[in-house]
Design a protein that fits this description.
This protein is α/β, with parallel strands linked by helices. It has helices at about 5-15, 30-40, 50-65, 80-85, 110-115, 120-130, 145-155, 205-210, and strands spanning about 20-25, 45-50, 70-75, 90-95, 130-145, 160-170, 175-185, 190-195.
Amino acid sequence: MKVGTDGVLLGAWAAVDEAKTILDVGTGSGLIALMAAQRNPTAHITAIDIEETAVTQAEENFKRSPWQERLTVHHASLEQYALTANAAFDAIVSNPPYFHKSLHSPDKKRTLARHTAHLTQDTLLINCRELLSANGSVYLILPVTEGELLLEKTADYKLFCTRKTLVFPTPASSPKRLLIALAKTQKLLLEDTITIESGIRHHYSEDFARMLQAFYLKL
C-alpha cells in the first residue's frame, strides 16, 4: 500500500498550492505529504498516522526528500492529535479508511489503513473541522457510495462541499471514486469528472496524464 492510484489522485487534485500549513491524516508512507511539499514550495506539512511502522517509514522518506525541513510526522490518531494540536491548517488531506462491514484482513496494518473501526466518518469530520482554519479546505477521496454517505453528514458538522470529482477507471465503466473538497463556508459547488485510462489497458487519458505528469518519471 505504498503508492496507490487513490493517493496520487488526491495528492495531485487537492488545492494545496497556496496553503501555508497542511495536515495529512493517515499518511502511510508519506506519499500525499510529499506531493504537497513538491507542489507548494513554502508550506509546512504535518503528517500523522496511528500505525507506528508507517510513521517510521514516512519519517525516513521525508528525510530523503528535498523538503525534509518542512515535513513533520507524528505517531497519533486524529482524535489524539486534535486534542493537543495548537494550530489551524489551511488544507487537510486524507485518504481515509472506508470498509465498514467487510471482513477484516488478517494483516493488522491493512486493517488499520482500510477499515473505519479506528477512524469513522463522524470522527473524521468533527476533528477536521476543529483543526481547519477559517478559510481552509478538507480534501478526501472515497469510494462513491461512502463518499455520498459522508456528504449527507457534512451539514451536521457545519461543513460544505465546494467541489466533487467523480473518478472513472475507463470511459465505459461506472465511477469508482469520489474526490471531495469541504470548507466552513458555503460556496458555489464545482462538479467535474476524470477518467484514468483511455479505454486501452495501461494507456492513461490525457487529463489523468496532465494531472500526474509532475510526479511520474514516465507517464
